Amino acid sequence: MYKLLPPLLLLTAPAAGQTIYVTNERGSSVTVIDAKTLRPTATWTVGKRPRGVVLSRDGRHLYICASDDNSVQVVDRATGEVLHDLPSGENPETFALSPDGRLLFASNERDSTVTAIDVLKRAVAFQVVVGVEPEGMAVSPDGRFAVSTSETDHALHWIDIGTRALAGTTAVDERPRHAEFTADGRELWVSAEIGGTVQVVDPATRKVTDTIRFEVPGVAPEKVLPVGVRFTPDQRQVLVALGRADHVAIIDRASRKVTALVPVGRRVWHLAVTPDGKRAFAANGLSDSVSVIDIVNAKVVATIPAGRAPWGVAIAP
After folding, report:
1. Transmembrane residues, as ranges (predicted)?
2. Strand bridging mode 279-284 / 188-192
3. Which of 110-114, 189-193, 209-213, 225-229 has the lowest mean pLDDT?
4. What is the spatial distance between Cα 209 and Cα 168, in angstroms, rounded to a whole number?
5. 255: which residues sit within 8 A by CB, 6+ positions away?
6. Which of 66, 122, 187, 274 is the most exposed, fewest CB within 10 Å of its CB?
């Protein structure tokens, strides 16, 4: 039996030296948050409808999907300045970075493709046609495969990075939104928004091995819409944003059991976990806020104002 805990608006011990970046989908901005004080320190203007956000491997830049500008923007973390745009294909929504930091794989929702961007050359390296409405992107830790989630086809599409070609597909539950590899590359966790599940896929066989379902007391099943998925650094726990259920689930990875449900803001989209594994920051799209979750105690310890419709979250040490 998992525990359901109430939200709190109090602070616990701070996380030193970390900065949180939150994309605001309707605000065309990024909210910058000091992880120690849990207060916003800046708001940066970026392109239209920013969603996906990821830190460059050297930690100097943020890559941001400016979906309605059909570009990926490179932002200087030191100044908040948009340095340049990368060609991304039409309507990039999310992306994943290769282990060496050279290739950025962006999902192009409107034209059913994945665009591989060479970030050093600032050019498209190649494109691969995938399923209808690709959204989530993941790259295997060994750098061999990129995986996109097709919302309409209810499938994963596996791209062989070496051959630059489609290598296979995996059927999953309805409307997959996010995919996340474990650090060792032996599991791929996929959220299915309409299916209301998270599924575990074996990359060796490309088959679903486990399906995890969620029951939130007092919440109608149709409001349980899993989207963002993140692992704690020790890989023992998995956090899942449950969308309109307004909760984040904490799962024990080994047993595949939900151990806690944490109430957060309205329409939680994505989240990120601090390097020490003690906290998670969750973007609440309809509350214009970020919930700070104490993972150990499974409770919200602060709520931070953000811009309009927070969507993506990245953490820099």
Report:
1. none
2. unpaired
3. 110-114
4. 17
5. none
6. 122
* 137, 146 contact by CB (below 8 A): yes
Structure tokens that stand for 263 in this block: 């109430």
Domains of the chain plus CATH, in order, are: 3-316 (2.130.10.10)
Q: Is 278 exposed, middle or buried (0-12, 13-18, 19+ CB in 10 A)?
A: middle
If pLDDT is split at 50, 70 and 90, which confidence band does 16 have?
Answer: low
**pLDDT band, residue 14 (cuts 50/70/90):** very low
Residues 6 or more apart in contact with residue 249 via CB below 8 angstroms: 214, 226, 239, 240, 242, 258, 260, 261, 262
Check: CB of residue 80 under 8 Å from CB of residue 64: no
pLDDT band at 15 (very low <50, low <70, confident <90, very high): low
